[in-house]
Records
---
Amino acid sequence: MSSMICVADSEPKACAQHCSIFLVVNDIFRSILKQAEGTESVKYLIQIFTSCFLRELDLLQHQTSVPLKALFPQSPQSLLVPLVTLLSEMPQEAWRHHLNWLSGSLQRLTEEEEEGDGDSSSSTRLQRERGHHKVFDAWFLLVQCAHWVQAAVQLLVTSGPEDCGPLMWLLTFYHHPTNRGHHRALQLVHAKEAWDHLRSLFLVVARPLPVDRLQSLVTLLSSQPQRPSASPLLILNLLVNFAVFFQQSLSGSTEILQTVVERSGLFDEAACVLSSLELRLNEGSCLSRDANRVHLRIKALQNTITHMCAASSPAED
C-alpha cells in the first residue's frame, strides 16, 4: 500500500513539476516493459502512474508550458494527443469514432512494419528495426493511456458483429503487440470467438444456461497443448464488462460470471477487473447513463467473487 501511495502522490507530482524527472522515469518504464511485455502487473503500474501524472500536469497547466512532445519524445506524434486525451474530455457519443480512428492508425503502423519483414537487405533491415521501435513506442503509449482500451472493451458489449472489428483489433493489439508467427492474427480469431460465445450467453433469458457455450468459453480461457491459448485476461475483461454493462438481469449475469470464473479459477483476476471498473466509474470515465445501477452491479459481483474466493480457500486450523 505504501508503494501505491508513493506512486499516487509524490512521484507523479515531482514528474509534473520537472520534465527531466519524468523523462528518466518514463525510460525506466519503457525498459521494464520491453522485458516484461505480457506482465499485467507492470502494465497496471504504468497506467496508474501515467494517470496520476497527467492529472498533476493538468493542475499545473497554468504554471508550466512544457509541450507534450517534450514529455513523450519517442511516441508517434500523430497518436500522442488522441491517446493522452482523457475520456472525460470528450463527449461519450464521440468515443466509438475516436477509437475506430485509433485502431485504424495503429493497424496501419503495424502493417508498415510487417511489410518490411520479408526483405533481408541491409537498408531494409535498418528500416525494419525502426519500424519495430515505432510500433513498440505506439504500444507503450497505448499501455500508458489504457483508459481508451477499457472504453473499447465496454463498447464491445453493445456492439453488433458489423461494427466490433476495429475495437476487437485494438484490444488484441494491446494484449499482443508483436505478431511473431502471425500470433496476433490467431489471438484475434480467439477473441472474436469468445465475444460470440459471450454475446450468445448474455442474450439467453431461459434457464438453464447452454452448457456447450459455457464450456467453450472456459476452454478458451484454458491453455491447450494443441494450439497457443487465447489471452485469458483479454477474454476475462470481456466477460466482466458483459456482466456489468449488458442489459441482462443481475442474477443472470452473476450466474454466468460465477460459473466461468469458478471453472477457470481466475478469481483474483476477475476481482482486479471489477476494481478497475469501479475506479473508472468513480472517475466518471465509464460509458453509462445510469451510474448508480452500474455501481450496484459492480458491488454485487464483487461480493460474489469474494464469497467464491472464501469458499475455495482451504479452511484454517
---
Amino acid sequence: MSKNKIFVLGREENQPFIVVKEILKKTNSKEDINKDTHCVPWKINNKYYKANVQFWIDSAKPEESNEETKKHWKEIGNVIDAFIFVFDKYKPESFEDIKKWNDIISEFDINVRLCVGKASNNKSETDKNKLEKFYDDIENWTLDNDFEYIDFENNEATEEGKNGVERIIEALETNMWENAVMKKGNEDDEDNDEDEKLMKEVEDLRNRLFSKFDDDDGFDNLITNLKNLKDFGQSLPDEARRDLAAKVALSFEMQFGLDDEDENIKEEFL
C-alpha cells in the first residue's frame, strides 16, 4: 500500500471533517463529505507533480487509546505521510489530546505534522490572559515536537507566507508523496505554459549545480553551489524559500532519480 494517507484526527465536537471539507472546496475537488465521512480521495495537481492521496478522518479520544489502538496504528502508521490534529483554539484542554496521541505517532516517519486550531460552535469563556498563555504553550510544544501550528480561521497572507486553509494545502502539496508522478513540462492541460516555464527553471538549476559534477573537484563544486543557494534562500520570504527548496529537490531527482532523499534536501533549505 502506498504511503499516501493524510490522517485527520480530532474530537467529534471539534469537527475535523470541516478542515477536509474546506481543503476540498479550495482545491475545486468534487468530493462532498459530512461528519460521517471517514475516507475521501484527493487529487493533488500542482506545478511539480500529480498525486492521488487519501484523507482518513477519525474522531477518537486519546483515552480510547489502548493496546488494540496501538496494534491498529502499527498496521496503518507506515502508510500515513501527513497527520493533522484538529482542536478548539479557545479551549486549552482540547490541545492536551495531541500530547497523548504523539506518544503513538512519534514512532512513525510522518513528514507533514500539523496542529490546526479552529473555533467550535460554542466559544469558550476562557479569559484573554489564559488564552495568550495557551497560544504560547501551543507554539512552544509544536516547535519542540516537529509540528506546525495553523490557525484555521486566519486566512490572511503575510510577508512570511500563507495562513489558514491555504497554508494547510501548501504544506500537503509541497510534500514529496511516494506515488507522485513528476511533471515533465509537456502535459496537455491549461497550466502547460506555466509547467514548461517551471521545468525549464528546474533544468537550468540542475545544469548550474551539476555541470562540473564529473570533474575531479565536481563534488566540492556541488557543495559550494548548494551552500551559496542556501545562503541566498535565507534572504527570501518563506514562500519563495519553499519554492526554491522544491526546485533544488526536483533538480536532484532529475539528476539522480531520488525519491526518499528529496524531502531531506528540501529541509536543508527551509
---
Amino acid sequence: LNISKKEASEEDVNKWFELLKPTIYVLLISGIVTFVLNLLSLIALGLDKNVGCHNKFVFLRYLCFVYCLFGIGLVVISSEKLQHFDVSCNANIDVCFWENFLFEVSLFQIIDGNLCAALDRCFAIFAPTYYCQKYKHFVKFGILTFAILHSILVEIQIYFSVETSELYKRHLYDSWYIKAQLILPIVVTILLYVVLIVFIKFKMHKIKGEDNSAHLHYQLKEKLLITLILCVLSYIVTIVLSIIVINIAYTYYNFTDAVRIAQYALFGYFSGIVHFALLFYRTEEFRIAILNIITNWKILQMRKINASSILPENRSYATKKSRATTSVIS
C-alpha cells in the first residue's frame, strides 16, 4: 500500500484512501477467514488422537499455526491502514516496521515450514528404519526451532538494512540477499518433492503386481507428497506472484495507476485459505479431524438447546422426583 514516490497533499491522501479502501477491507476479511480456518485446523489436529502420533502432522500443525500468524498479520496491517492511513510511512519507520513484522515473519516461516516438511518426508522415505525407530522428538522440534530462528534473523537483517524511510517498503523486494532467502528454500523444497515423487513412482513400478499392501502404502505416500507440493505451489502462485505484481506497480510514478495495478496482487493474501482447502480436499485424516470437531460442536449446541428448552415446571418436577427418590433410598 505504501508505494508513493513523492510527498502528497492531504487531499491527495484522502483520494487515494478512498481508492484503496475496498482493497483494505478485502485484506481484513481475508485475514479473519485465514485465521479462523487455520485455528480450526490447529485445534482439530491437536484434539484428534489418530493424527497426534504421526510426525507428518507435526509439520502440518506448524504450518496451520504459521498461517494463523499470517491471518493476524493481515488483520493488523489492514486495521492500522483503516485507522491511520499514511501514504509513505515517513513519519515513523519503527511503527511501519512493527506494523508489518508479524506478516513478514509469517511469510518466511511458511517457506521454512514447507522446507521442514520436505526434509521430514525425505527421512521417512529414504531412511524409514531411522525414521520409525530413532527419529526423536528433539530432531523434528530442532528443525522447527531452526525455521523460527531463521525467519526472525531475516527480519533483523531487514530492520538493519533499512537506511532511509523511502526504502522501507521496497527492502523486501530490492535486496538480493533477502530475495535469495525467500527464493532458495522454495526451490530446494520443490526439488526435494520432485525427487521424492520420482523415487516413489520408481518403487511402485518395481513392486507392481507383487505386493498389494506395499503398493497401497506407496500410493498413500505419493498422495501425501503431491498434496504437500501443491501447498508449496499454491504459496508460490499466490504470495510470490503478488510480490511480482507489487514490484510492477512500484514502477508507476502515478499513484492512482500504481494502485490499480497493485489491486491484482490481492490474490496473494488468500494463500492461507487455499492451503486449508487443499488439505481438506486431499488429506483424509485432516478432513475427518475437521468434520469431527464440527460434529462435536453441533452436538454440544444441541445439548445446550435441549437443556434450555426444558420447561420450568418440568424442571422443578424432575428435581422433586429426584429428591424423593434419594430420600427413599436413604
